[in-house]
Here is the input.
Amino acid sequence: MFSEFLKFLDESSIRSFVRSEIDITPVLQKFREFGPTEEPSVKNIISKLCLLLALTEFLRASYIHLIDYVRIRVKNGILYLVIIVPKENRVGRPVEKPCQINADSDPILCLIQTYTVYKEKISRNFCPTPHAKK
Here is the structure.
């Protein structure tokens, strides 16, 4: 899924990083192909969640993997999450990067709605395990 996303971006004509115009129409079309968040398959829900996280917070796949799922919460239409970065240390402890993501008015592009469906349909039983890089 990420390779398709990056392929779409590579195909766009990026001329300059200063005031550049990037056509994100292919990315938006991909989200529309997923359809309403309540209906897609498990693969599509997970792909959509990862893509939305990558786009809204400019997260690399390795950072998405480092999200502390125990501490994710939705409150007043805002998704709060914490990324634990084990390679960066302060006073011998890993650095935590807090993020907050507001709801989008378009339900197909709303990360909070996608996360809620993911939590209800896929991630019902939480099984915390330490991250491999810790």
